[in-house]
Amino acid sequence: MGTPQSHVYSRERGPIPTSTLKIELPRITAVWPKRIYIQWLLRNPSPGETYVFQLYRSGSAEGPWEQIGTDLTEQYSFLDTAFTSDYRMRGADLMSLTRTVYYKITVTGSSASTAETTKVLEAGLDRRRKGLRRKLVRDAGVFLEKITGSEIAVLKRKRWGAPCTYCQSSTGQSVRAHCGHCHGTGILGGYWNPVYGFAQISRKVNPVQVSTEASGKVETHRTEVLMLDIPQIEHDDVLVFLRGNKRFKVVDFIPTQLQTVPVHQELIVTELARSASEHKITVDDVHSPRWF
Amino acid sequence: MGGTIVTNPGVPRLTTEHPDVSPGTPLAVVGLFLKALQYRFTWTESEPLPWVWDANLTPLDTEEEAPIEGEPRKLMIEAAYNTEKAIRNYRPAIYVGTGDVTPNKNTVDNFVGENLPANFRAFHSMATMPIIFYCDGENYGESTLIADTAWMFILASRDIFRSAFSLHEITNPVLGQTTVMQTDKEIWRTPVTFSVQFDLRWTTRPIEPLIREIGLAVSSSEHPADYYIQIALRDFES
């Protein structure tokens, strides 16, 4: 089948063209719990040309994006202070150990040259490890793509956004788990746009376990998945294996490292029942009409 | 229930129940409340609930696309521990189960009377059977709201159920705490519990006098074989 490929996924692990205009985000640092400092760097600018930057924020590498910096000129940093910590989930917040925030910076030059990049909130690596990481991530990505992996779509669960007006009670809880507007998350949309890539299900055989309880026969299937650390996975994110449309919910995630450099993520996932609300989320951007 | 749920008169049992299921057994009582809940959650225009019982749980075509406002989600209502059903891990769902059945002793030795000539002894007890509704949903709000609907239904219809189901008593239901458990994902369960009471009646007859009676009849009979035939056919008229 044709494989949808996320721009971010392929860009972050690929080599850099050396002569084209490029923009980087060398530093995205959090000042807990209210601020994030973003710094960007322009590569290969043309002399005499002026550049205008637009800065965006999202909870996933593929958006949708919220613009937080408009027509920025003569500056190469930005302090994002728009974290409201509104417990009704209306605004982005930094009040969790596993919160991930993505930033996208675009640049437009006066000669119509453009570039953009996307990056997740992270501590950042030193110069030596940056190069090492790029090599390791690229090798791991090629290995997953060509040999052991299978096409996936990552559905990152929204942690902030407009509340779902169709199913949210005054307590902030969703009253309809299969709400088509928020998929039971209480936030409109429910999940960010799918991020496509490759992942490998554990080679260990993990059978479907069937137990008997008050609801009759109950099936559970837990397994392990290995993927790159792009995009960063959080608890309750959903992985869709596009061949067969099997969907898994992330129970636990373990960032792994090679030579102290983060490269992979090992995930413990549980396969969702066929009637689960997450099966209603559309992920197929390749076929028309969509298969799933 | 006005003929909507048809039961055997005088005993807690559906008329359509399997003949092996005796009145008052847990299966029989669960069947009664299954029918009641399925009736409650059947779609009606006058009260459009977000969850509708349907024996066919295949999603509506509209469920596959953008939802139509007010379109309900199908609800499964089944007996607890029913392992014969093919569908697994479906939510939302209500499972009807029972607890320990306790016969209460209202009289000494449950004894209520005796027929001396025939040596029949009659007994009576009142059985108390806890009923539990397990209301499962994929989030807290859905589970607790489904349970609340079922809970209020039982509370408001107690007197109707007592007469329709031939039950002596239905206690006020208790809406339990919603708790979470992990299966393929987090599942939230809210229990609704109450107890039902119904009559148990039985008789006994001592066997030894009967055997002696047979022996006396045989020994005094001119044709003992005829008497054995009468016993076998239970025909004492001739």
> In percent terms, what proportion of residues of chain A is strand?
35-45%
* Low-pLDDT residue intervals, each spanning 5 or more residues of chain A: none
Helical fraction of chain A:
under 10%
SSE series of chain B: HEHEEEEEHHEEEEHH
Shape of chain B: elongated
Quantity of strands of chain A, as a count: 15
In what range is the share of β-strand residues of chain B?
25-35%
Largest sheet of chain A: 6 strands, antiparallel, barrel
| Alpha-beta classification of chain B | alpha+beta
**How helix-rich are the residues of chain B, as a percent range?**
25-40%
Q: Segments of chain B where pLDDT lies below 50 for 5+ residues?
A: none
Spatial strand sequence of the major β-sheet of chain A: 8-9-12-15-14-13
Indicate the mean pLDDT of chain B.
86
Distance between the termini of chain B: 48 Å
Gyration radius of chain A, rounded: 20 Å
Work out the helix count of chain A: 2
Sketch the topology of chain A as an H/E string, one letter per element.
Answer: HEEEEEEEHEEEEEEEE
**Rg of chain B, please?**
25 Å
